[in-house]
Specification:
The complex is a heterodimer of chains A (about 600) and B (about 600). By secondary structure, chain A is of the alpha/beta class. Chain A has helices at about 10-25, 30-40, 40-75, 80-125, 130-135, 140-180, 185-190, 195-230, 230-235, 240-265, 270-295, 300-340, 400-405, 430-435, 450-455, 465-475, 475-480, 500-510, 530-545, 555-560, 580-585, 590-605, and strands spanning about 360-370, 375-385, 390-395, 415-420, 425, 435-440, 520, 550, 565-570, 570-575. A six-stranded mixed sheet of chain A has the order 6-7-8-3-9-10, with helices on both faces. Chain A has a four-stranded antiparallel sheet with strand order 2-1-4-5, with helices on one face. In chain A, a hairpin with a 2-residue loop joins strand 1 (about 360-370) and strand 2. Chain B folds into three domains: about 15-170, ABC transporter transmembrane region fold (Up-down Bundle); about 170-285; about 350-585, P-loop containing nucleotide triphosphate hydrolases (Rossmann fold, 3-Layer(aba) Sandwich), CATH 3.40.50. The chains are: A alpha/beta (about 600), B alpha/beta (about 600).
Chain lengths: ~600, ~600
């Protein structure tokens, strides 16, 4: 076998690696975190290690049998003994194979198990994070972490641990056995060790370095394409296709060059290890051969020795790979921990009191809100008595959605005070608070489930009567009857395409069915035609009694009969009053009202 | 999304002759390198097999005769072979990677160029993310197939043939006996491949499901939280995750069985060699060296076979990727250039729409029976409420789309008779949302036209009042817009887009005026710039500002996809029709 060899020096080399790993573990709390997961599978890992011992024990026995065979053949041996040896080899290998099977199942099983747990923890944790976190981080970024990084961690745990374990066990035992055969021969085989150690260390850090550059360039290509595609209208309008190709060619060329520079260093790595391994064989052949000639070792021992060298080749090479896996895995674990260590901003705390029932009186006092440095809400003072319906209006970006997001604590209040029934919102258990809020967001989001599942989404247990009622208030009943699968119609990304209005009304049903004390409709009629809107509002009237209702809207028609209308502009309340009052005052609201009247008139022409 | 995922999940055969034939074509320019690489591989495989044979000679010829100098000679030869192998192997890897990189480069270029030539309707249908995946990941997968797949498969096959040949040559009968386990090995491999493929597929679909669910949960997080669904949702996720875990463990099971099986089968061969070879040795027919060499060769025999089964996954993924890539390459642009295009030498700038009907993707008609004519040098404004079809008129004129019925003429010639690119060279199109590319301000004005000199850029910027704010930036024209992109106001971006249009000095100017309001000072600059921009050009402006509308020669009022009114501002006001109503709404179209 070409390789073999360096195992001899292995111990030393290995020790170094292990030491390096251990220090890395100590410094690197990325891996420390993994330890807590691994500890849960102590039993599996210990069993795996025992099986690994068994695997290697049997594997190392075979060269032993070969040695006796060869030595026996030199003296006297009968056919029966020969057959016995052959059977011995076969049965040893079957035992070894059995142990290898057990080992692989255990160790890889642990890796997948940990991946499973990590993924669960990740998901569970994500659900605790507040909206402001999701505004900061891109969905694609989280997805990348949940897929690629998780996989890298699993690779570290699976093949990483398995190979490390195998290398340690196989290496140390083989070297001991080799020392027993002939210490001098073993020592000679140690000669190439320093070269190999240095080579692996130099190579792996450089490879890692260049690999990172390749990855960066890869991202640049993606970014370049993304930009090109986003600006494709400009590209086409100004006939820039050829120039864009030139630009892309440059990116592509750089990527290729960086790859080739990686190949330059990565390319000789493997052949070099093979070369060093081969030199080991040559030494054994040359020096070991002489020992056979001088009679210090038998030909059988010579074969046995070579056998061990051969066996060690793979784990030795795997060691380089392991280093790589550890590096990548720990970097990935770090990226996962960035999510896992994100402290949930919104949760029950020591302020939380034992509150079970909410009436629905809401009061904002001097509430301000800013994202980073961008001020969204400025000094909001607003009291909404229970059972009242309030309309909120204002141009895009005036802070309407932020204002209503504060009520169910989707966003955390940082300045000012927000009370419900006179109690600070922080003191209300999150569960209780949200249970009492029915919310229809601006952008309708339906899950990939049936229509029914989507509507009874927040309901504890299913209630047919409630379902019917909610659907009927939302004026969705007729349409549902028209779907061939009715309530079982699948919706969401994988389901049928509902119209924007149907989606909004589904979301409305979802909020209504919970019979919340506080109902928030954030521009929930934007895709519903005026006629249907009117119908829904009429049906809602009864439902709204004894419930506090907040209607955010662009259309006057949605809010004109609210008890109070508030106009927001640049995060401030600029007008408030009833429809009549506001129209009479001749401000922003009156202006919008006039325009909408005109637009309606225009629509009638068409 | 649904379709998208389905497409990503496709996993077909590991070998598809039709796809392979197309892929091979990309290797054609590097034929020579491929040949060299394969020849090198041949040598490497052969040299690799020298070890056991040299050991045999050492044992039989020198150790047996106690010839130390002979032993040293053999060791030296061995060393020399190792060094040569090292260089050849490095060279081979290098060339192979070079080919892979080159092919990837070509393919990526081709794909990118192809995408550039697609019509806008294509981009309406294909999400950006999907196209990026084609250009990056899918091509990367092909590279893996090329470098770790196809060519190394040759290497494996060479090694296999080499081992078999040498073994047969060393001892024909013993060789045949050690091959006795081969059917077992082949059977095990085939069985494994079949099972592994199934579990691989299960893993892929289950992880896809997890990711779809995860993505949905991230997007729908506010709903999950408000509706107190965290626990239920988690339970569901856990279930999906568990399904995935099961599939993974199943695949671990197959792997855990397969690899030891191969080893056991190998050891059976060694047992056979010990038993039969030992007997032969006793009879004096076989030498010790040959026996040792045989045992070593048998080891070499399994590696390639085991490798081949690993290659299967690579090949399968590659076939799926190439299927997707070729599908994209086979997509034809919907708006096509004529076979014999008319060349445009000079244009006057007369535009005519004749009975034009248009719908996106054969849905509802966006434009119905549109006919109008714009004289050379005339300035026309198009007004109307949202959804009236204004932007579609621009898109048709620029031939981003073709109308279903009717025709569009420039200087009396159907625009479909020109090459798209040539046509667009005469049009200046300013879109509503200003798109800035990464790069400097200067880059963003002249775009990729490197022949344009700085003076031209500066001149246009000055002319449209953009020069002033640009000069105030720390780096002036060399300011990076991406870094400072957020610092440029909407108005500044608009001025920048005017400069961009002007620098190309178009005969016909098409402008989709931005709706967003800007501060008064900038507004004055924009109005002034706009007036200058429209001078001496045939212009069509989708106008949102009263001042713009007042400055044009004629106004076309659109409503519901039709032209409803047309005339000057005064005429239309007097008419008290749609325009009058729009006007009353303070012109917030």
């Amino acid at each position: 076998m070409t390789f073999i060899f360096f195992l001899i020096n292995l111990t030393q080399f290995k020790l170094q690696i292990i030491e390096k790993l251990l220090t890395a573990m100590r410094i690197n709390n990325n891996l420390a975190r993994l330890k807590t997961y691994l500890l849960r599978h102590k039993r599996g890992l210990i069993l795996g290690a025992i099986f690994a011992l068994g695997t290697n024990f049997f594997a190392l026995l075979i060269p032993y049998v070969l040695r006796y065979t060869i030595d026996g053949l030199q003296t006297v041996i009968n056919k029966e003994t020969l057959l016995l040896y052959a059977l011995l080899i076969a049965s040893i290998s079957i035992m070894g194979g059995f142990f290898r099977y057990l080992m692989t199942r255990r160790l890889m099983g642990v890796a997948f198990q940990v991946e499973y747990e990590l993924r669960n923890d990740l998901f569970n944790h994500l659900q605790k994070l507040s909206l402001s976190y999701f505004h900061k981080i891109k969905t694609g970024d989280i997805m990348a972490r949940a897929t690629n990084d998780l996989k890298a961690v699993r690779m570290l745990l699976g093949p990483g641990i398995r190979n490390l374990l195998n290398t340690i066990i196989m290496g140390s035992t083989a070297i001991i056995l080799m020392l027993i055969i002939n210490s001098e021969l073993t020592l000679y085989s140690l000669i190439p060790l320093p070269i190999l150690t240095v080579a692996v260390i130099i190579f792996s850090s450089r490879i890692f370095h260049r690999f990172k550059k390749v990855q960066e360039q890869f991202s640049s290509i993606s970014a370049g394409v993304q930009e090109n595609l986003s600006g494709i209208r400009v590209v086409k309008a100004y006939v820039q296709e050829e120039n864009e190709k030139k630009k892309f060619k440059q990116l592509n060329q750089d990527y290729m060059n960086k790859n080739m520079s990686l190949v330059k260093i990565w390319g000789p790595f493997f052949p070099f290890i093979m070369l060093i391994a081969g030199i080991g064989i040559v030494i054994v052949l040359w020096f070991g051969g002489q020992l056979v000639i001088t009679g210090e070792i038998s030909l059988g021992q010579f074969v046995q020795f070579s056998g061990y060298l051969m066996m060690l080749t793979w784990p030795m090479m795997a060691l380089g790979w392991v280093i790589n896996l550890v590096q990548r895995g720990s970097a990935s674990m770090g990226r996962l921990m960035e999510i896992l260590d994100q402290v949930p901003e919104i949760k029950d705390s020591e302020w939380t009191q034992d509150i079970n029932i909410l009436e629905g009186e809401i009061e904002f006092k001097n509430v301000s809100f800013a994202y980073d440095e961008k001020v969204i809400l400025k000094n909001i003072n607003l009291k909404i008595p229970k059972g009242m319906t309030i309309g909120i209006m204002g141009p895009t970006g005036s802070g309407k959605t932020t204002l209503v997001n504060l009520i169910p604590r989707l966003l955390e209040l940082r300045q000012g005070s927000l009370t419900i029934d006179g109690r600070e919102i922080k003191t209300i258990p999150l569960k209780v608070l949200r249970k009492n809020v029915g919310y229809v967001p601006q952008e309708t989001f339906l899950f990939s489930e049936s229509l029914k599942e989507n509507i009874i989404y927040g309901l504890e247990g299913f209630d047919e009567a409630k379902l019917r009622r909610a659907v009927s208030i939302s004026a969705l009943d007729d349409e549902i009857e028209r779907f061939s699968q009715r309530y079982e119609t699948p919706v969401g990304e994988r389901g049928v395409t509902l119209s924007g209005g149907q989606k909004q009304r589904t979301a409305l049903s979802r909020a209504i069915i919970r019979e919340p004390k506080i109902l928030i409709l954030d521009d929930a009629f934007s895709s519903v035609d005026v006629h249907t809107e009117e119908k829904i509002l009429k049906q809602l009237r009864k439902f709204r009694e004894r419930r506090t209702c907040i209607l955010v809207a662009h259309r006057i028609s949605t809010i004109h009969d609210a008890d109070l209308i508030v106009v927001l502009k640049n995060g401030e309340i600029v007008e408030q009053g009833t429809h009549k009052e506001l129209v009479a005052s001749g401000g922003i609201y009156a202006n919008i009202y006039r325009q909408q009247r005109l637009r309606e008139g225009l629509e009638k022409i068409a | 999304m649904n379709q998208y995922q389905a497409e990503e999940e496709i996993l077909g055969k590991a070998y598809d002759a039709r796809l392979m034939r197309r892929l091979i074509k990309y290797l054609a320019p590097y034929k020579l390198y491929v040949v060299i690489s394969i020849i090198l591989l041949l040598f490497v495989s052969a040299l690799q097999l020298a070890g056991p044979y040299l050991t045999k000679i050492a044992i039989d010829r020198y150790i047996a005769t106690q010839d130390i100098s002979g032993l040293s000679r053999i060791a030296l030869i061995f060393l020399a072979i190792l060094i040569v192998t090292f260089f050849l192997r490095y060279l081979q890897i290098y060339i192979m990677q070079f080919i892979g990189q080159k092919v990837m480069f070509d393919m990526r270029m081709k794909l990118f160029s192809h995408v550039q030539e697609m019509s806008l309707s294509f981009f309406d249908k294909n999400p950006v993310g999907r196209l990026i995946t084609r250009l990056t990941n899918d091509i990367e997968v092909l590279n893996e197939m090329l470098t770790s797949g196809i060519i190394t498969i040759f290497g494996d096959i060479f090694t296999l043939i080499g081992v078999v040949t040498i073994m047969l040559w060393l001892d024909f009968k013993l060789a045949l006996i050690s091959f006795a386990v081969l059917p077992l090995l082949i059977y095990a491999t085939l069985l494994f491949r079949q099972k592994a493929r199934k579990s691989y597929r299960a893993i892929r679909t289950r992880i896809a499901r997890i990711n779809a669910f995860l993505q949905e949960s991230i997007v729908g997080m506010p709903i999950i939280q408000i509706f107190n669904r965290e626990r239920k949702n988690f339970r569901k996720f856990k279930e999906l995750n568990h399904h995935y875990l099961e599939a993974c463990l199943r695949s671990v099971f197959y792997h855990a069985i397969f690899h030891p099986s191969v080893e056991i089968i190998g050891s059976l061969a060694i047992a056979l060699i010990v038993w039969y070879g030992g007997g032969q040795l006793l009879k004096g027919v076989l030498t010790f060296g040959a026996l040792v060499a045989f045992i070593q060769y048998v080891h070499r025999f399994y590696d390639p076979i085991r490798d081949l089964s690993e290659k299967y996954n690579i090949m399968q993924a590659a076939m799926a990727s190439s299927e997707r890539i070729f599908k994209l390459l086979d997509t034809q642009a919907e708006v096509k250039d004529p076979e014999l295009p008319l060349s445009i030498s000079r244009i006057q700038g007369e535009i005519e729409f004749k009975d034009v009907w248009f719908a996106y993707n054969d849905k509802e008609d966006v434009l119905c029976d549109i006919s109008f004519c714009v004289q050379p040098g005339e300035k026309v404004a198009i007004v109307g409420a949202t959804g009236a079809g204004k932007t579609s008129i621009i898109s048709l004129l620029a031939r981003f789309y073709d109308p279903q019925k009717g025709k569009i003429l420039i200087d009396g010639r159907d625009i479909r008779d020109f090459r798209q690119k040539e046509l667009r060279r005469y049009l200046g199109i300013v879109q509503q949302d200003v798109f800035l590319f990464s790069g400097t301000i200067e880059d963003n004005i002249k775009l990729g036209e490197n022949k344009m000199n700085f003076e031209q850029v500066e001149e246009s910027a000055k002319y449209v009042n953009a020069d002033r704010f640009i000069k105030e930036l720390p780096q002036g024209y060399q300011e990076d817009v991406r870094e400072r992109g957020s610092l440029l106001s909407v108005g500044q971006k608009q001025l920048l887009s005017f400069a961009r249009a002007l620098v190309f000095d178009p005969k016909i100017l098409i402008l989709d005026e931005a709706t967003s309001s800007v501060d008064t000072e900038t507004e004055i600059l924009i109005q002034d710039a706009l007036a200058k921009l429209l001078q001496h050009r045939t212009s069509i402006v989708i106008a949102h500002r009263l001042s713009t509308i007042k400055g044009v020669d004629r106004i076309i009022v659109m409503h519901g996809g039709r032209i409803r009114e047309s005339g000057t501002h005064q005429e239309l006001i007097r008419k008290k029709g749609i325009y009058y109503k729009l006007y009353q709404m303070q012109y917030q179209f």
